[in-house]
């Protein structure tokens, strides 16, 4: 007894589905193919039809032949040797049913006979289309309609479809089709319209139709459809707020008159006034709250009787007053501003950008300022009083930073420590009540004494306050002198120590998080301006919004935190903040939107053929007692018994191989149910696929032919696939397979040369006289029977049929060279006026390349813009022109034909774009000076010409290429030295943008700079250089260079005086040394006892000549 075998032939069935065809995107000069056209449906009363064929250039046109497959009774091909012959009926109408026509021809290059088939289906007449009214009366050619009309079309037969359409419509028309029923909706056009409706029944080939002309009057359909902007169609009662209410009735025409009436049902409340009559719209002027009846009446006209509609209205009279008031004239940042409405504690607030609102709709509504770059905010409240909208209130907030200065006295010092980001990026606001008595006050001057960056200017004021907007572009110490123009002429020193810290990042907003998921919150690390972690920063997570509080995994004062659960579906807001100094908080906010995540229970899919199900029923008649399946099993057994003249179905051996030419039913069932259930085609789509050229009814299998089954529901949450192969032939001794002729060569050396393959067996090559070969997949079509050609990395298959037994074997062949694919090498970029020309060396076996681009990569581009990874760009060439982006990093991956990818190439940066026109960029920089805090200050400039509005960016790298600190902008930049000598690479990038902000050209200049240790003593503006200063008769030389403990003064021998006075001042202008020294020989000054800081020395000779220099001590 032959055993039924079921194989999961995923790869095999994939190739069956591919069919015979050439490899995509590759063409061959020797291609030979033909096509018989697509399947068609025609009605049986057709006199004739044409077959349409197509052939390639390698087909012999003299060998073209059309034939009818099977019986040709009732039809004739007039000229079967042309590509598009005419087919005529030979006896009345064409015979009903599918008819197969075959196109065949011979290839010029190989002599091979090739064929293709097309199915022409002749359909019987369709059912007669007839239009009925709701009483099942035939409506005839025309009908009058006084209200919305409903028509019914006659029922279509099996495999037929009924369709409604509008033939003519003078105005806009809307209707709803529900199966065979038509609901004509008259809300979109005027009355008295004549509209022709058409109903048709079609079976794919034949069609019948019926039409009716409908005159729409509409007078019987009086409806109040809108009150105060609220749709009220088919409603009896509504609540309305307001004093002036616009109302609308249903549309009427044909000179029909309408009228409105409103009556008060509340004692003591008068009837309100109505606007003009005779129109479907009106205005009601209410004066008091109350209950009213609104009546809309349409008079009769023509064949219609007219009608009316009544609506009961509860009206709440609202005053519509808008209150505007201003509070919080000065807001401290960061700040929380209470939002309270005097009229409506539950008012809904909205805000301008830069703030979020928590506890909205409650008496505890609060606005939290999130954008410290803004200095004006407005919050609007939508208020409701007695369930009626009352108006909009607003709160306006003027914002600036307020510092209390003490009154200025001579040399009185005021010191502030400022975090750039805490005071809003690059800006610091200051307001000061200068004097309590303004008499004689004329203004205040603010003059910069010492600034690390060059963005501070003199600030003058003529009011009681000094309000200054100062830009701090770098960390360091800023010293200002403030003085008044009053009679007192008081002055003071103001010192601002500027620190820095990068803004925190709370991560990206997320949508679609399951409420049962554990969600990780991952905050950024607090990094200062030099790229170091700042341990003094406190990190805190706070929920600032959402439908309900979430549950955290632990304390919120940590960098990383988990949300253990979300209480319900909605959008949640979380703030991640850095706190460094009192009153300084830097924050970032993210949104997390949650969804309900219900688990879908899929059926336990199982594929069973008819005999398998019958065997299981014999062993377990309870679980496999499905009446519908058993009915089909019995029908199969009865068909076999009748066809083969068996005594009864009990004599039917349920063995497919006894009747291999018969189709056997196949069932997809759910075995998790008892009894098992057939998978419903209403809930699932079931697809059946057979080998090319095999025509088997869906839901059936046949011996020795593979069957593929795919099942999926509408959203693809439950998917199942299976393959069925009932083998009734034993070819184990034959063992046919595809093998290559190439036994000693390496096909991967040159993938462009095709391989010659043939069908072999254990007894040797199979001959075309004993076997028939059907090739499929990416074969080249240049073979002869049992041989073919194919490229490496492409798949080819062959179906082998024994001409005597008709048994079938299938084998596939694939020569894999993709495991040797290498990453692309020799990447290069050339900047052109068109863009960035990327190129690389081509890779053997690469089908195509994927180019991965990251915009604004901080390793290649200036900071300030967020990095963004693009979707990989595919190209079959070893080059790519990128035109839409200014700066990016890129790398390339080679992809083989089977989808296998190489390792990624090395990452490269985009190239400089040449400047257009006469613009010339030539970046240069120099080290200007070193400050008291060991800050190396660099100055940059452009030696080119004709480049207006160029912009500057500074980059610092160690000698391993690692970036040191953030990118700096402006013509100057600062680098802070360390405790040891080091070499760094300093790079200046200058670029020019157009009016749209796009970079049109850029150029970079880099050079190496030596940074000396900070534990030294230096003299003069050039701190670590030997200094020679000359002033008239006095010349002083300082040594050694640099100095650590002792400073030597050497005086010029030509000086006429013998002594001079040496005075040392500290940073507060206090004298710490005043001594008469001899200038006839060197004078040594020990500085080891001086504290680190900035000092000044002054040497005065007898003639009053003075030399003044700075001394820097930093240990």
From TrEMBL:
InterPro entries: Ig-like_fold, Secre_tail
Domain Secretion system C-terminal sorting as annotated: residue spans: 1040-1113
Pfam families hit by this protein: Por_Secre_tail
TM spans (from-to): none
NCBIfam families, per database record: Por_Secre_tail
Protein name per Swiss-Prot or TrEMBL: Putative secreted protein (Por secretion system target)
Organism: Sediminitomix flava
